[in-house]
Amino acid sequence: MGLTAVLGDITTMDVDAIVNAANSALAGGGGVDGAIHSAAGPTVLEECRAIIAKQGSCPTGTAVATFAGELPATWVIHTVGPIWSQHDPIENGTLLANCYGSSLDVAAEVGAKTVAFPAISTGVYGFPRELAAPIAVSTTLDWLNQNKQNTSVETVTLVCLDAENLRHYQQALDEMT
Ligand code: AR6
Fold first, then answer.
1. CATH code at 40?
2. Nearest-atom index, ligand 1, CA of 11
3. Nearest ligand 1 atom to alpha carbon 9
4. DSSP H helical segments within the chain, as ranges?
5. Which of 52, 84, 124, 166 to mutate to test the pocket of ligand 1 (most atoms within 8 A of CB)?
6. Whose CA is closest to 61, among 10, 104, 18?
7. What's the domain count of the chain?
8. Nearest C-alpha to atom 34 of ligand 1 is from which residue?
9. Which of 17, 72, 79, 156 has the fewest CB atoms found within 10 Å of its own CB?
């Protein structure tokens, strides 16, 4: 079991499951969502459309899995982060924590051992990075600790595209591990 943070592009991660910072329509978009769909090829969007047709839009804080098309990963877990301007800070924190918890629940359901997350909501959804990083780290550590007896998930990697996010993660990891 372990939690680490690295600099990199999540689409290149050779893990069982990567998490996508999606929107509630699972419609694709910019940022990490756009990068994942463009590297994975069209099958991921087709699966997303089938999920939406079946269950309707995905509420903020929830997660669903598709296969990962042409990516090195086997699964993409799509989670819907909070839009910072639409909630108060406490609610934003709860919803962001729910994204990490529900994504890890889905990772365990599909039997993933290795999981990589981007910094959910810290791009166009506007979640302040210095607040998002400790929520990501504490929620993941708590989940790993609570589920260690009965989960496939062994390692979680927090993948940052930029050094600023990595610095926030490393600070949170230093304080909490
Ligand atoms: N690998 C790792 N991290 C990345 C990558 C990448 N390839 N590309 C971007 N990031 P964002 P959100 C980082 O905007 O704020 C989409 O249009 C980026 O630096 O991708 O949750 C969706 O369709 C930032 O720190 O996601 C939604 O509509 C982080 O990923 C909406 O954006 C998240 O930025 C979701 O917004």
1. 3.40.220.10
2. 7
3. 1
4. 31-40, 43-55, 89-110, 129-147, 163-176
5. 124
6. 104
7. 1
8. 123
9. 72
